Amino acid sequence: RQSLRIQNLHQRTRELKLSRTARVLR
Predict the structure, then answer these.
(1) According to the lineage, what is the superkingdom (predicted)?
(2) Residue 24 belongs to what H/E stretch?
(3) Rounded CA gap, 14 and 23, in Å?
């Protein structure tokens, strides 16, 4: 089942995007 793997990847991308947004906001 790669579903979990894909989900994990999505979560990582989401975190990265959030981090980038926070940096821009700062």
Answers:
(1) Eukaryota
(2) helix 3-25
(3) 14
Encode pLDDT of 1-26 as tens digits: 789 999 999 999 999 999 999 998 87
What are 24's two structure tokens? 């821009």
d(CA 16, CA 6): 15
User: What is the Cα–Cα distance from 20 to 6, expressed in whole angstroms?
Assistant: 21
Please report, as a single letter, which amino acid is at residue 8.
N
What letter represents residue 19's amino acid?
S
In this structure, what is the dihedral angle of CA atoms 10, 11, 13, 16, given to the nearest 10 degrees?
170
